[in-house]
Request: fold
Amino acid sequence: MALNGTEVDDFSWEPPTEAETKVLQARRERQNRISSLMGDYLLRGYRMLGDTCADCGTILLQNKQRQIYCVACQELDSDVDKDNPALNAQAALSQAREHQLASAPDLPSGTRPAPQPPVPRPEHCEGAAAGLKAAQGPAPPAGPPNADVMASTREALLQKLAWASAELGSSASLEASIQLCGLIRACAEALQSLQQLQH
Amino acid sequence: MAAEGAVKAALQVAQALETIVSGCVGPEGRQVLCTKPTGEVLLSRDGGRLLAALHLEHPLARVMVACISSHLRKTGDGAKTFIIFLCHLLRGLEAVADKEKDSLISKNIQTHGRYWKTCCRWKFISQALLTFQTQILDCVVDRYLRRHFLSIFSSPTKERSLCRSSFKLLLEAYFGGRVGRNNHSFISQLMCDYFFKCMACESGLEEAFELVDDCFGELSVGVTGLPVSDSRILAGLVLHRDFSVYCPAGGDIRTALVTETIQPLFTTSGSEFILNSEAQFQTSQLWIMERTKAIMKSLQNHNVKLLLSSVKQPDLVIYYAELNGVSVVECLSSEEISLIQRITGLSPLVLPQASSQYEISSTALVKFYKPLVLRSKRYVHLGLISTCSFIPHCIVLCGPVQGLVEQHEAALHGAFKMLRQLFKDLDLSYLTQTSDQNYVPSPLIYKNRESNQLADTVNGSIQRPHQDPVEKNEGELAKTHTYLKVYSNSVVPSVELETHIFRSTPKVTPAGTQQTDEALRCLSANKTRIMDDHDLFIDGDPTTESTAENTRIEASYENVSITKMGGKGSMLPVRCKSLEMGTSQSYCFSSISAGCVLPVGGHFEILLHYYLLNYVKKCQQSEAIMVGTIIANALLGIPKILYKSKRGNQSFPQVYVRALHTLQTNQPMVGSQTGLESVSGKYQLLTSVLQCLAKIVTIDLVISIKRQPQEVYDQESEEEL
Reply:
């Protein structure tokens, strides 16, 4: 619907895809929950301030003891965090798959720069690292091979391989298993390239 | 972006408020328990009270609550519906904004330019909303909704009498959404009785309503500690004071009103009183005593048995009053005094300065006066004889706690406001596109009394046409020029108008197309004049169907007079020619007549939604389409909430589909719930919401300051919401 006359191109708007619809739905439900919580607190005598929370943008409330309270941050899970691949394994997997689908005809030749995450939560680190590794694909080694470097790299790779296989054995989720298999393959390929370097 | 932020923030606020009010809206709604910041607990279903009790510091929240309060002060109804509707509109606008944002972001524009583009877009949307409200809404309501209106009057003619059962249904629906379920039928019955006791004749209703609305606090007495069912109506007036002196009397009783002390003072303010000796002082005192005695004696001679005073009278006056058998009530509030003045036409007593004149001029007859004891407080029960159309009665409202009494009082007051709006005609005006040849005017009925908007702004005098095939007696009309400007709701830009003013002669042939030829050309004025509305406009029957009828009007201004000649629908089509456009448009005037009601249960919303969507389909302008669609979709939010708890055949989708079907097949709509609601109330609510939304949408920046700015008369002060 053109409001500015000829400047907005009507034909460039497409209806939202299924994924986007789901996101919209989830966002709407989250908003409804926030609103009902806020309404409850207002009825209990909390004051609705004119400021918004720095993290999530929800309106802040203040109780009678003059403590500031954000309904979303302190009661609901964050909405944005679960979409951040550095903080959530699922998001990392979905991003990885999207990248693979997008780049299926042409394989990545160079290293792709990983997205810089903000301070990650400790419990999501493993998943993040795994996701990043899967997104990156096999990276060719750069620089002259150093024996110590090689040894430590090899050790790290073997450690990761061992951990991944242990995780794979105990994993119940399909996504995690796929991810772990990808990690194992990447580790094996890295080891192979390391061996090639050594010789 | 700041402007988008305003809509997003407003949406958050509105959603939070919506969750609060949606629980208590409608007849199925429940009471809401609210803790005020002072620690008191409020249990209520009244939207206005709840919103006022919340502690809101957010500027947009305060804007919304202020809009709602001012709407309630005028109409007495619709706070919860306001919030729900506003919330849905904001959601619709945000959805449009999101869609637009994607296409905007894809453009490679500078941030600054984009910011201004966004701001301008919101201003554009706000303007589109206001244009919609002033033009399209009126048009749709007048043309399409009119045929669905019911009336609480039993006959649509001039001598209309109120239909009691419809009136009861109206009040029950009103109180059903506002007062607790256990009390609402009692309160609506109380209100119904009070109305019929107070309003004697049907003609002076407006004046009576105004009186009740202004002075409702004085017309009701609250008593705590008694059950609600003890509430009753008393004939006469109950003053919130007790007698200082009570001397019962019978027969011919008169009362006088005083606003100053009867005992003369030593000196008036601003002058000096010089005493030289004790003897002088004694003489002065003696003189004062004699004067007071004389005045009280003369009061008795005039049969004034009751003295109503707004100030405290000194002991001497009380003593002489008791001696002479005059009852005195002191320290009445100014509101009570003005109420008594309005009812009886009594003016305060002017005490004569000179000692010889003791003529008491203004007194009024009363039927009775006696003390009234309610619980432990004493009041004065006064039986006044009314000179206006309002027969004074008082409501004694009982309740177990003060809060409940206050709520019932507020609900009754709101009901009177709502009735006051219902019994008034509501003007509608809109532009219609007309082609010159096939002009078929819709019935334009214009009430004499309500033509303020035109009368205030119409300047000019009429020019007779050069070529007018109908005009035969050309010499009679004064040859003056006309330049008319019409403003409506202060949004529509002023346009130059050409008025059709028809001169009737016996030879005028009735033909619809004739009217288009009889155009008076308006030229710019050499001299301007105010046109009297009653010279120009005709009273007509507002409920007739639209047909193309010939208007024979004898137009006169100065030498020209207008009278209605024939036909049921009389009209005054005013042809507008805007300077920018070449097409000619017709300005139509109409009204929602007094007493128009619709069944409850979302009828108004569903009807308007349907007709609005139909109208939008035929519309060409994109912003009108956008605004119309948003509003039509938002309107459905209200019946959705009303039918939220129903299942099966009575659930909202079923009701909606049935309603659509009946509308498409042109059958009369049947309401499932008993109860009526006022159409003008709904219409006014809609316009209030659109105005509030237009204000909110154009907020670009919120600046918080610590203190109120002082009164600075230069234009550079920052504005705070």
User: Anything to note?
Assistant: Chain B touches chain A through 43 residues (CB under 8 Å).
